[in-house]
């Protein structure tokens, strides 16, 4: 049977637990496959074991064909672990003979979940065909008796309705709705869902369990042997559990938008949180204790973290000289919060905030413009698409459980402290629920942006002393979406991160030779503008490659510390070029090539590769003086030739003046030295064509190698500016 397409009808099954406890392991809410198992157990077991099963089989095979259901469930928190001592299951070690199993008991830990509201869970399947099978499921749902372990007694009630009615029921249900993600495929930890064949696998598992003990002859006697039942068939599905987001602006009565100093972020959150908590407690008097725990955090335990409401002050960022004051507050209500999201959000519009001078003319207003949220990597349904990034850095410093000395430390001491801080950052990521693996972590006291505030300015004794505040930069192994807030002050506005320091868009993975298409431009870019464009490109990259001490990364500046050029003995800075890819006589692409791709005599380390990817990924525009501001498309991998014969695409310029006349012999010698410096094989032949006798006359070189060579090849004095760029002739 083909999978049913989405339709206008809905199968609703509401499961109600007898007690507000749930003992089974696995994700919350209970997975669709667990409900499927419970329905099958109730339909076929007990006093219904002997009745005809054909109509039931048909109904459950129809159900396992449907797409995963929507689920609405109340919030739940993990309780304390309880240890039971049970017989050790070591029968495999004795050949499956139960008589030979020693009476050994082993500890088994069980951590029940406490359901914080009404213990009712709603499942909604959408379907187009199969009204008769759906009606059978409605009838069989009355037989459900447990959901989870044997102690999780439950009952179920099902109904059929239009999907519009189902959405109304879900909206009115006292729980949070989670829906299957568009990708569908899940990880091992995601909820299992039934698939075609699930019913048959459960029936086979039951049959195997009934016959798992069999007697087999052994010598003059018989022994009982255990055969393990086969495992059921299902698939895991990723479910979206998005937080409810609301954005508010700071405003003064009759005076328009207001600003709040970024270094006072903690005070702003505390004032807003306390004022909102007072109003919410009045609106929900029967849930005042939950307001204390999940909004203020008073009395909250570790299990409550997934449901804690967050108020995130958003400093203004996005441009180099933007004033980083706070003008907006982002309210994030997790899906696991036991407080109704609509009730929580309703207390913030118009909320008056008392100031330190006693005045209360500052209040919150719903924000219509969500563009600032985009700078923090946040996706908002219907407003902003997903914008994940790999590189992130703090805008407000993170409070880490690590003290740094206030005196002058040696370099070794500082390194040791920074290593400990990196370990603390990893712990902070786990506590914030971020599972992506960091590939690099950097910490410092100074902000990462030009206008970012020093970490010490956020100090608030005794809770957030200056010695515990750090600005953090993290690169993840995979793109991550915001908001990301880490550290001990993450509920008070500290540890807020944004994509960067300069990265918003991602380069292709493992890319070290990139090409950027120049978007349509009002000024014609001709071949004579190539060097002007590469000089402008170098300046743009240097602006992205700023280090924390105000310098520029040597890979992009070509300089070590001080004004002189780098003297590493190798060409360890990037190669740039402007290209006419379509051959129409106009430059249409800019290329950035990592130094190790051209100079094959050395290999970079992981940090150098990461730095190249991070900095080039932030390249979006180039200011080229009279040529205007060039807007660049996202980077793509640069195509590479592999050939035996290579000829100049741009003119070759000798690396030094010849001692004698600039003849072909001197040029061949210079080219041979350049090939040796770049780690290239010695050319078999070097053909030289000089277009004129002047010292500056263009030189065209054609190289032939003994074996095919893979590009890129850039040689000569202007190689880092796109001069001496070769293209392959023919195929390898």
Main features:
single chain, 732 residues, alpha+beta, Alpha-Beta Plaits, 5 domains, 7-stranded antiparallel beta sheet, 36 strands, 23% helix, globular, disordered N terminus
What's a concise summary of this model?
With 732 residues, the chain is of the alpha+beta class.
Describe the structure.
- The chain has 732 residues and is of the alpha+beta class.
- The protein folds into five domains: 231 residues, Alpha-Beta Plaits (2-Layer Sandwich); 131 residues; 111 residues, no CATH class; 125 residues, no CATH class; 88 residues.
- 23% of the residues lie in helices and 27% in strands.
- The chain has 15 helices and 36 strands.
- The strands form nine sheets. The chain has a seven-stranded antiparallel beta sheet.
- A hairpin with an 8-residue loop joins strand 19 and strand 20.
- Helix 2 packs across helix 3 and helix 6 packs antiparallel against helix 7.
- It starts with 8 loop residues before the first strand and ends with a strand.
- The N terminus is likely disordered.
How many domains, in number, for the residues?
5
Architecture of the largest domain in CATH? Answer: 2-Layer Sandwich
The number of helical segments is: 15
Low-confidence stretches: 1-5, 502-510, 561-569
Number of DSSP E strands: 36
Distance between the termini: 52 Å
Overall average pLDDT = 82
Task: Output the structural class.
Answer: alpha+beta
Question: What's the layout of helices and strands?
Answer:
Elements: E1 9-17, E2 21-22, H1 32-44, H2 54-65, E3 70-73, E4 76-78, E5 82-87, E6 105-110, E7 113-115, E8 120-127, H3 131-141, E9 154-162, H4 163-172, E10 176-185, E11 192-193, H5 198-210, E12 213-218, E13 221-226, E14 235-240, E15 244-252, E16 256-257, H6 265-283, H7 288-296, E17 310-315, E18 326-333, H8 341-346, E19 352-353, E20 362-366, H9 371-374, E21 389-394, E22 398-399, H10 411-431, E23 438-444, E24 469-480, E25 484-485, E26 496-499, E27 513-517, H11 530-544, H12 554-557, E28 575-579, E29 589-593, H13 595-598, H14 606-617, E30 621-623, E31 629-631, E32 636-637, E33 642-648, H15 664-677, E34 685-690, E35 699-710, E36 726-729
Antiparallel strand pairs: 1-8, 1-9, 2-7, 3-8, 3-10, 4-7, 5-6, 10-14, 11-14, 12-13, 15-16, 15-18, 15-20, 17-18, 19-20, 21-24, 21-26, 22-24, 23-24, 25-26, 27-29, 27-32, 28-29, 30-31, 33-35, 33-36, 34-35
Helix pairs in contact: 2-3, 6-7
């Amino acid at each position: 049977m083909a999978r049913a397409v989405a339709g206008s009808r809905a199968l609703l099954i509401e499961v109600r637990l007898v007690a507000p406890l749930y003992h089974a392991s696995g994700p919350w809410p209970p997975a669709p496959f667990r409900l499927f198992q419970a329905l099958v157990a109730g339909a076929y077991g007990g006093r219904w074991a002997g009745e005809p099963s054909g109509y039931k089989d048909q109904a459950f095979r129809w159900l396992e064909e449907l797409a995963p259901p929507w689920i609405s469930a109340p919030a739940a928190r993990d309780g304390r672990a309880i240890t039971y001592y049970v017989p050790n299951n070591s029968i495999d070690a004795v050949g499956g003979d139960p008589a030979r199993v020693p009476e050994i008991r082993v500890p088994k830990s069980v951590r029940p979940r406490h359901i914080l509201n009404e213990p009712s869970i709603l499942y909604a399947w959408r379907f187009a065909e199969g009204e008769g099978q759906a009606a059978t499921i409605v009838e069989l749902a009355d037989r459900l008796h447990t959901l989870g372990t044997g102690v999780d007694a439950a009952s179920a009630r099902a109904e059929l309705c239009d999907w519009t009615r189902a959405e109304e029921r879900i909206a009115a249900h006292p729980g949070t709705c989670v829906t299957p993600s568009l990708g569908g495929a899940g990880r091992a930890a995601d909820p299992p869902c039934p698939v075609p064949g699930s019913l048959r696998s459960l029936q086979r598992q039951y049959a195997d369990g009934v016959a798992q003990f069999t007697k087999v002859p052994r010598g003059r006697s018989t022994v009982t042997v255990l055969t393990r039942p086969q495992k059921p068939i299902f698939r895991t599905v990723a479910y979206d559990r998005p937080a409810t987001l609301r954005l508010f602006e700071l405003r003064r009565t009759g005076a328009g938008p207001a600003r709040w100093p970024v270094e006072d972020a903690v005070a702003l959150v505390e004032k807003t949180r306390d004022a909102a908590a007072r109003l919410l407690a009045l609106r929900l008097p029967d849930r005042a204790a939950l307001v204390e725990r999940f909004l203020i955090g008073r009395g909250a335990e570790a299990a409550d973290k997934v449901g804690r409401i967050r108020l995130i002050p958003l400093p203004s960022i996005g441009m180099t000289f933007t004033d980083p004051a706070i003008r907006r507050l982002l309210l994030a209500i997790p899906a696991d919060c036991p407080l109704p999201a609509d009730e929580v959000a309703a207390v913030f519009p118009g909320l008056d905030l008392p100031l330190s001078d006693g005045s209360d003319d500052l209040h919150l207003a719903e924000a219509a413009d969500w563009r600032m949220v985009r700078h923090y990597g946040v996706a908002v349904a219907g407003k902003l698409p997903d914008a994940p990034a790999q590189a992130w850095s703090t805008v407000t410093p993170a409070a880490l459980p690590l003290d740094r000395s206030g005196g002058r430390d040696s370099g070794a001491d500082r390194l040791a402290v920074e290593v400990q801080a990196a370990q603390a950052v990893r712990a902070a990521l786990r506590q914030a629920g971020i599972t992506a693996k960091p590939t690099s972590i950097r910490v410092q006291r100074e902000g990462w942006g030009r206008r970012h505030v020093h970490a010490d300015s956020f100090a608030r004794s005794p809770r957030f002393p200056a010695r515990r505040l750090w600005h953090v930069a993290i690169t993840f192994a995979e793109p991550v979406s915001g908001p990301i807030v880490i550290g001990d002050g993450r509920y008070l506005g500290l540890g807020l991160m944004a994509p960067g320091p300069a990265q918003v868009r991602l380069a292709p993975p493992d890319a070290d030779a990139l090409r950027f298409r120049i978007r349509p431009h009002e000024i014609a870019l001709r071949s004579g503008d190539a060097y002007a464009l590469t000089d402008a490109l170098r300046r743009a990259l240097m602006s992205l490659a700023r280090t924390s001490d105000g310098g520029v990364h040597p890979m992009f500046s070509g300089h070590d510390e001080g004004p002189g050029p780098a003297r590493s003995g190798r060409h360890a800075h990037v190669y740039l070029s402007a290209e006419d890819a379509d051959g129409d006589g106009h430059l249409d692409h800019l290329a950035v090539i990592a130094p190790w791709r051209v100079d094959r005599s050395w290999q970079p380390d992981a940090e150098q590769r990461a730095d190249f990817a991070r900095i080039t990924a932030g390249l979006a525009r180039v200011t080229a003086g009279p040529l205007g501001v060039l807007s660049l498309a996202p980077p793509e991998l640069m195509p590479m030739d592999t050939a035996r014969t290579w000829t100049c695409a741009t003119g070759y310029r000798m690396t030094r003046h010849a001692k004698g006349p600039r003849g072909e012999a001197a040029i061949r010698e210079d080219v041979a030295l350049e090939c040796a410096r770049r780690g290239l094989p010695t050319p078999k032949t070097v053909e030289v064509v000089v277009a004129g006798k002047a010292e500056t006359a263009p030189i065209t070189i054609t190289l032939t190698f003994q074996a095919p060579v893979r590009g890129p090849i850039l040689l000569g004095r202007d190689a880092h500016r796109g001069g001496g760029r070769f293209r392959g002739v023919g195929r390898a």
